[in-house]
Amino acid sequence: MSGSPTWYLDDLHVGIHEDSPARTVTEADVVMFAGLSGDFNALHTDAQKASESVFGERVAHGLLGVSIASGLFTRTALSQSLQGALIAMLGLDCEFEGPIRIGDTVHVEAAVVHLCPTKDGTRGIATIERRVINQHGERVQLLTTRMLMWRSRAATQEASAS
Length: 162
Fold this sequence. Notes:
With about 160 residues, the chain is of the alpha+beta class. The chain has helices at about 25-35, 40-45, 45-50, 60-75, 75-80, 155-160; strands spanning about 15-20, 25, 85-95, 105-115, 125-135, 140-150.
């Protein structure tokens, strides 16, 4: 997917996928996210307490992982090509399947998993799954987003004619 032409709902098909660049989660990320969010849970901020947890060390906030995944997805050609047709994000379902540790390098594997035109025929909902994968190939988060998008002009004209 080179360049960033606008892709409408009708330009997509289930199975389109793309991997994002990778990014390493740093201690600074965790500290800044704690300050920004106000979440100073010991699991993220207290090395001694976190060492006694099931993880044995401090881990990144789950929502920090979601935020990083969001940023990584925007760096893909798939995301960039949807921007011109995107109306709104309708929802985000998150499954936290494993810890994101300080020092982990993560990337996003994004795939279109469902497409559904709206009844009026001018718009539709694209469901995109974003799998957050660490450097060991382990899926640590599964994020599913539903996005309201415009359909192509041809599809919109067909809908108005009916």
